[in-house]
Amino acid sequence: MRDDRPVTVRPAVPPVRLRVRAPLCDAELNALFTASWPAHEHTDFGARMERSLLWVAAFRDDELVGYVNVVGDGGVHAFVLDTTVHPCVRRQGVGVRLVRRAADEARLAGARWLHVDHEQHLTGFYTRCGFGPTAAGLRWLG
């Protein structure tokens, strides 16, 4: 018996690839952050990255679609900052891959503790990244 129903062929979606300390410019980082957070204000990421322990970037072809920054204290502590994933690749595991890779790279760089501060609605995400809850203090200095 022949099946004459139309077949939908979806174009192949290029994979998302991660790169550690990939060269990035302010324009592409600001474009990513604006797509992710419409209220984002232009930021000088270059100055931040000069002080970073490392960062991991996610690319689909040559387009930046994800980013996470890790800063260190010069000792055994490192801190996850600026985790951002473009809306076009959210809910595909890109964010978890970024943070897990950042954790692996931070360990290789000598960190033994990786810290993250996050809002309550991100608890599930950071749990999937391997983080557990802790009691910590936070003080606003602004």
Topology, pairings included?
Elements: E1 16-20, H1 26-36, H2 45-50, E2 54-60, E3 63-72, E4 77-85, H3 94-108, E5 113-115, H4 123-128
Parallel strand pairs: 4-5
Antiparallel strand pairs: 1-2, 2-3, 3-4
Q: How many alpha or pi helices?
A: 4
Within the largest sheet, what's the order of strands? 1-2-3-4-5
Quickly give the structural class.
alpha+beta
Q: Which architecture does the CATH hierarchy give at level 2?
A: 3-Layer(aba) Sandwich
CATH fold-type name:
Aminopeptidase
- Major beta sheet, specifics? 5 strands, mixed
Overall shape: it is globular
Note down, in words, how this protein is organized.
With 142 residues, this protein is α+β, with helices and mostly antiparallel strands. It has one domain: Gcn5-related N-acetyltransferase (GNAT) (Aminopeptidase, 3-Layer(aba) Sandwich), CATH 3.40.630. It is 27% helix and 24% strand. The chain is built from 4 helices and 5 strands, in the order βααβββαβα. It has helices at 26-36, 45-50, 94-108, 123-128; strands at 16-20, 54-60, 63-72, 77-85, 113-115. The protein has a 5-stranded mixed β-sheet. A hairpin with a 2-residue loop joins strand 2 (54-60) and strand 3. This is GNAT family N-acetyltransferase. Residues 16-142 form the N-acetyltransferase domain. InterPro entries: Acyl_CoA_acyltransferase, GNAT_dom, NSI-like. GO terms for molecular function: N-acetyltransferase activity. Keywords: Acyltransferase, Transferase.
